[in-house]
Amino acid sequence: MTTKKPVVKDTSPVDWKVQAVLTPALAAASLFLIMAVQRIHLLAPAEWFVHQVVLKENADLALLGFTAVWTYYITNWVANLSMGFFASNGKIAMSNMRAQKAFLSGLPARLNAVHFNALETFPLFAAAVVSARIMGVPPHLRAGFAMIYVVARLVHAVSFALDLVLLRTLSYYVSVNTSLILLAFAANPQWYEKYEYYSGYTDAKLSSASKSAAKVASKLKKEL
């Protein structure tokens, strides 16, 4: 008995010539976005919060652990729930889930893709974090890039679920490039020294931004 292949409907088709230009353009844009985020210390409040939970030197490992839980448990759980919720009989074929996933479309298919895309990028991120620690990349850089990776993956998941193609692609390249940059820093210390100089993302400036975030948090607590 021959099984019919599922027909995939593309809601946002792009000509291959446009794709040939768009992909490298978004990849390059992601590099400037990463530097801009760190130059203005946009994620300083989030980094300050992480430092309240774990030691500053171990913030990158904490974010790596969160990403592992997000990748292997949360995205998989959400994808499976959506598959069962949108199934005609409201059930999940536990004996052969892959066969059921082959016929997914719409939101369940996109959520399943979120899970698999997370699986694809996590090993690179893990290798980057571990390599950066072994080679002595400064803690504020390890934590800073790890934080951007986590935020990028969360944005990627939401934009993928909502079928926001450009935002999804941009957030994907941000997450990949943060890992590649960390690997580059691990390979050559001069590169992260130059990055600190040109981006202004130094430990001293980050500490100042974190103190400002702490003051804001303190004021909010008093008001509440």
Automatic annotation (TrEMBL):
Gene3D superfamilies: Membrane associated eicosanoid/glutathione metabolism-like domain
Xref: InterPro entries: MAPEG-like_dom_sf (IPR023352), Membr-assoc_MAPEG (IPR001129)
Annotated localization: Membrane
Domain of life: Eukaryota
Record has Transport as a keyword: no
Keyword annotations from UniProtKB, A to Z: Membrane, Transmembrane, Transmembrane helix
Membrane spanning residue stretches: 21-41, 61-88, 143-164
The keyword Transmembrane helix belongs to this UniProt entry's keyword annotation: yes
Single GO cellular component term: membrane
Pfam families linked: MAPEG
Protein name: MAPEG family protein
